[in-house]
Design brief:
Helix content: 25-40%
Largest sheet: 8 strands, mixed
Strand order of the largest sheet: 6-7-8-3-9-10-12-11
Order of helices and strands: EEEHEEHEHHHEHEHEEHHHEEHH
Number of helices: 12
Number of strands: 12
Structural class: alpha/beta
């Protein structure tokens, strides 16, 4: 576990991040609206930690991750990485700090050039950002292949000759080539067989400890996020619904959307699974091009109040390190008190079992 947040260095600081994609229509291609993929997201990531980002398909997780690395030109907000606001940097300035931040993509087959060998793929960042000699570059490529568990004999093979897990290891080696401090892992296990997923996640954890890496780990798999993440952020329709330390969020989720998500996670214990109550959300997710007034979850929330249809709730800290955007904790202190009492009772029960 990490020390008190005040004693940790903040590597990534995101404030009011917006990523809107324009909608054009008609013969004259007039601007008629925007798809609000990311709409005012604020969070921090501390050095050496893993922040898990979860949510259903289309909520803006991957867009947020790509915007953090300036793979998209952001609409508004600031993104500070190691004290430098990269949101407004020129292409030349951005290129100079690009080695500090890298990405591992979801589909290892689509993210690797099929015409390049493994050595060429891993060595490409070294060609672009370093002046290493040929022998030094080859030594670095071999070092990276060793780090991710690939045989050096594979250096002259092509991506199609590898399994999905091996291709993802190639992508991870490429991301590590320039000794980055921050890596965005965009659903790195989603395209892999279940038997391979744990291997890749364990590899990421080992590399984090070995090289002192900081991760933003984007995933649908709540069980895997619980395994790898130190803190978890829950996203819905372009906004953060909740952000908290891992155990706090999984044992005592405050936001109704988080509660519904966690209720859907199967439990390996048949006795627990048999009595688990599912929270079934009604209706469909609204379009990010036309989000509802007030809280963006108000159209599906089982605990909706009148104010939810009028006013967007503030994303605020309701207990140390636990942030939530819900009017229930702005208006009803007794609701919050009961939720925290349940959390404390759960903690005591777990300690008794251990």
């Amino acid at each position: 576990m990490f020390d008190d947040p005040a004693t940790r260095n903040k590597l990534v600081a995101v404030r009011g991040l917006k990523m809107h994609f324009p909608i054009h229509a008609g013969i004259l291609r007039r601007h008629v609206g925007d798809v609000k993929a990311v709409d005012g997201v604020t969070f921090d990531i501390f050095e050496g930690e893993t922040l898990g980002l979860v949510g259903e398909s289309g909520c803006g997780k991957s867009t947020c991750g790509r915007a953090l690395l300036r793979l998209y030109e952001v609409t508004a907000g600031s993104i500070e990485i190691n004290g430098i606001d990269i949101a407004d940097l020129s292409p030349k300035e951005l290129r100079a700090i690009r080695p500090e931040m890298q990405m591992v993509f979801q589909d290892p087959q689509a993210s690797l050039n099929p015409r390049m060998t493994v050595a060429a793929i891993i060595g490409e960042p070294l060609d672009e950002h370093t002046s290493l000699s040929k022998s030094e570059k080859l030594a670095r490529i071999y070092e990276l292949m060793d780090a991710v568990g690939l045989s050096r004999d594979f250096a002259n093979r092509f991506p199609h000759e590898f399994s999905g897990g091996q291709r993802q290891r190639i992508g991870i080696a490429r991301a590590l080539a320039l000794n980055p401090k921050f890596i965005v892992c965009d659903e790195p296990i989603a395209a892999l067989d279940v038997s391979i997923q744990a291997q890749v996640v364990n590899l990421l954890e080992d590399l984090q400890e070995q090289f002192g890496l900081t991760y933003l780990f984007i995933s649908h798999d709540l069980s895997m996020v619980r395994h790898i993440a130190d803190r978890v952020a829950v996203m819905y329709l372009g906004k953060l619904a909740e952000l908290a330390p891992r155990e706090s969020l999984y044992h005592a989720p405050l936001h109704p959307y988080t509660q519904a998500l966690l209720s859907a996670v199967p439990d390996p214990d048949p006795a627990v699974e048999a009595v688990t109550e599912r929270i079934i959300l009604e209706g469909d997710v609204p379009s990010p091009a036309n989000p509802p007034e007030g809280c963006n979850f108000c159209t599906r929330c089982p605990q909706v109040m009148d104010i939810c249809h009028i006013e967007d709730p503030e994303f605020r800290e309701v207990v140390t390190g636990h942030y939530v955007a819900c009017h229930r904790y702005n208006e009803a202190e007794d609701e919050f008190a009961s939720a925290m009492a349940a959390y404390e009772e759960n903690e005591l029960n777990q300690q008794g079992e251990n």
